[in-house]
Structures
1.
Amino acid sequence: MKFDISKVAVITLWMRVFHCIGQSNRPAILENSQSLIFALPDAMGDEDGANYMCSLFSSNYCLIGYVISRTQSARFPHEEDFYDFWEMILPMYRDLNWFSVSRTFNFELGHCCNYQSTVYRMFGQDRGVSPAFFLEKVTNFTSHGKRLNSIKADFRRDLCVNIIQTVGFGTGSLKRRGGMQGVVYIFPPDGDERVHLFSYNNIQRELQFDWFKENIICEDQPWICEKFPPITDYHDFQHRRRLLSYNLISTYNDSDV
């Protein structure tokens, strides 16, 4: 079976992914960072955006992909790389919540595998990484070496909060895009009473991958917490996180905003 992706579609998706993860599209990226990127569903968001698209398929999260900022080896692209990755990811994309959420591939929204394979081409093949290596990275939910290093948010003036659109966990310093400096972050409202709040200055400490994994990812995919359990001292941290959320919610509810 032959698949054809035009250069225009690849470039368009490249721009959408960079917009989604909150990184600059400037050619020089000095830091060697890697990040597992997730979109948060937002049914009230832009209908052409990944967050709205995600809300059509999950109430918790959608995997965007794995981003590698710099070339990892001198490996040359193989002609069959794109199709090899296609065949690898097809049986498992639903188990990862890795749905196609790009209007670039409007014909396969919620499905596979032009979107996923193009993400591999951009951030795997073009970085000297084989399909198997990239697949290992995108399916590795271990907590070791994963710290919040990417966040994209929109500032909501009426609520005076930064609504988080995407988060990334991996290596490298934290990169922020959008939002208002100094303003609390929240996950998109989901219609129930849960409110996840995170302070602006301490979000790396408060929004840890273990918390995100147990409370967001594993709500949809319990097998991930079974295969990649949280760290042993996580539940003590979780207790502190609940207290922090309670204090922030109380403060927010008592404000005049």
2.
Amino acid sequence: MRNTAFIFVTLLILVGLQVQVSQACSGISCPYYFGTTPLRCVNKPGKRKKRSSSPTRSTIAITHRYLYYRGYYMEFGGTRSGGYAKVGTYRWGSRCSADTESRPAGWSRVSLDCMRKCADSYKWMYGSFHWYNNNCHDFANRMARVLYDGRYSSSYCPWWCTYRK
């Protein structure tokens, strides 16, 4: 009974935080955040890289990295089929702790529809999942680049996201 109550309270808190963050938009520009989920529930976040262009995070870390934007998690992971990209309201490994950065990585006006199309086209553009050179960290950085490039225009969506294969 204690576990059920704990899980219920935790879910209420998480839903409240998700609503609070997703409503923090300024006009039509909304914040986006990097976050990590521990691999096998062990938290070892990556280090920040300093760049003058779009925000990025380390591509080699013993964590699963995601991007959080407008109340949705954007993730990429390895499977036998070469990987799977998703945009959804629940993150993978939701039973484990997560560390979404408290400060936004940036602000964007890109639509969720565009981000879904980018996730759907990701493997076509960048190839299958590989633990070293096309992993969840690379995916989060590339999706952050889309958000960064669309910071001034709500109609922005890269060609590769809308190109029909």
3.
Amino acid sequence: MNSVILHFSAHSATVSIRLLDLTVDNVARIFQLVPDTIYLKDRENGTLVLPYNGIFTNTVGAEYDVEGRPSTEAGPQFRFPPGRLPAAGPAPGPRPPRPSPSPATYTRNVVVATLVDGAWEEASLTVRFSADQATVQGIQDLVRAALDARSVVLADGQGRRLIPSAGTEGLEYWRRGSRKVVAYRGEDFPNKRSGRRSTTEMVRAEVARVQQER
């Protein structure tokens, strides 16, 4: 069976329609009904047939009564000759896929330590990262880009360098605000780690000593 017969008592209309064209949109247009209210009733056993994704797929009978609320925006009422199918558009195609949601992002405050005139100056930097970036390398790259630096070293509050490992990966580690993370420019970190003064610092200290002796 490739088609069914639809009856609509309000219009005294009888229409033969192919199963491929048996969609809510086509039935609504043919009988001028509100699409969301349309369902079919099997004339033989009274079974109700509801649409699935806009298509009547569970039709096993040969004739159905069309039920639904007339559209208030419809034009003049008309009737179709029995057994005649009006022009109907093709069945609707697959719906376009929904856009993928943007990945969740989180924020992390990083202390930026900079060596200025022999003293360490600190500033606060907030970086936004995703779950994939919740690693030492990921945060390091974000800080480096924000500072426009050639290289960056991350350390804990005691000046110990953070090493990529299972313990320093994941959201649980990087979302914990109580854990201090300090970023050093690559050229400054050796001085912090060894406790030695930088070349610039030593030169300035020597100049200050000479001036005091005069």
